[in-house]
């Protein structure tokens, strides 16, 4: 009887205090049939905050993707709650316009890299009791074409299963969409019916609407919801070798990707690190990748193999043709590569350059590929000296591609050395598929179609990069710029390049230029490309020239709202919005007047340093918050009275007994 009375009283208290921490671990008696049993129940441990909506919306126009992530969160508690917004986006994308309608200016913090292609960011804000907050992040990227397709990666990790979860991708390409496909960690059998794909001529749509149960039970899901990606791949129709060019509001963008061209025979030299740090799985996977690459060489290709530690070992001291006999000898050489010794990168790369320089072939394309997992520890070890020596040896005659195996390597050193010699650097991740990563990179450069490409734009100015050493099958060259005085009549684009033994000229023979692009779009693409290339150029400079390029990149980043290594990201409150954010003083700090609680600052440094930081202040507590405080005080008094009354009744009952 008294158990029932106590239960009613406790439940009455619970009704007065919905979702508070006061009863987060409450013991009470619960009737089960005709008996009562003492149980422990965490009544309010669940869902003190709730993500009630999570939307990802990505729009792709002319290979330029704008993705908006919107997370809506509610604080269900009777007290303020700190809410965090975590988001993962593809590396090296330009972020802008992160805001929270019910928050103040806070910095977005870069936490770390996640896997191979993602970076994690977060921000947090303290939300008043029973209030909601909306986080929105916009990031942009110019999709890169590799292996004959573009890839858009969408990462979904809302932190909880969400009732209203939607991911929508809309692709619009004036040239026409040739195909669209969906893959990735969330493209599984368990989620197959949550994905819909539609393709119609110049447009394509992908929708991903998983149910709450699906968000808990898929391969990369759990009680904390989904944690995986969707990768949307597509390509466009290509009717002519010149590509397509768009103009709008005094700007243009040119996508150049001819495909109906004969392949150019190549001369390729592989410079392979076999120092002691390559022992174990690294050297095994390197051998596996090289054996697969050798199988793909055409008979009109010439190749060279060098393995090095503090000494250099040749397969042959000169280029050899990829005949069956030479390939079999090369396979035996690769199988016998063993780890040992220190690392003389300088001597090895110079030897690779010597082999290519001493055996030029007309009508061929030369490529030098370095694979290493560490720093130079033997011979010349100064980074600047090595870079200077290599640049002088190559002299702009062929590209150098540097593959950095693992995280012990000084990747910036390899990146700078590649950029100085018209190549790129790529990190190879230590994983079970490292051999596939190596082979995948080789496939990107395995089929050269053009060399010495020059993009010419009469009537254009402020152009992005216009000279390229080589163009490979399945890739794409993109150039953007301004049109002088917006005079499209005199604007004349042209491409000159070498194919095998002939000079080819690509012209816009039909004279068609697409001018249907919305105002401001091409200007933004131009700014994106310009900032990206300025940051690459900055790596190669020093002194006043470096500062000048930094300043130019910074000004463009701030003008167009791009987050770069030179700028910081800030969460802002849209104008006209009232603040429902609760701010508490730091520990050991006297609280400021309620109308001027300081907004907490979070430091953010994407790669080198802060250029600009921000601060903000909150508005005073709203009338609604004050009213809520009065209600809570009333509830506390009510509970005290109920418990006192119950104790009096219980004592009287004991006295009666």
From TrEMBL:
InterPro entries: ITIH (IPR050934), VIT (IPR013694), VWF_A (IPR002035), vWFA_dom_sf (IPR036465). Residues 267-445 form the VWFA domain. The keyword Secreted applies. Residues 575-591 have a biased composition (Basic and acidic residues). Keywords: Glycoprotein, Protease inhibitor, Secreted, Serine protease inhibitor, Signal. GO terms for cellular component: extracellular region. It is found in: Secreted. GO terms for molecular function: serine-type endopeptidase inhibitor activity. PROSITE patterns: VWFA. SMART domains: VIT (SM00609), VWA (SM00327). SUPFAM superfamilies: vWA-like. Residues 575-597 are annotated as: Disordered. The keyword Mitochondrion does not apply. Belongs to the ITIH family. This is VWFA domain-containing protein. It comes from Xiphophorus couchianus (Monterrey platyfish).
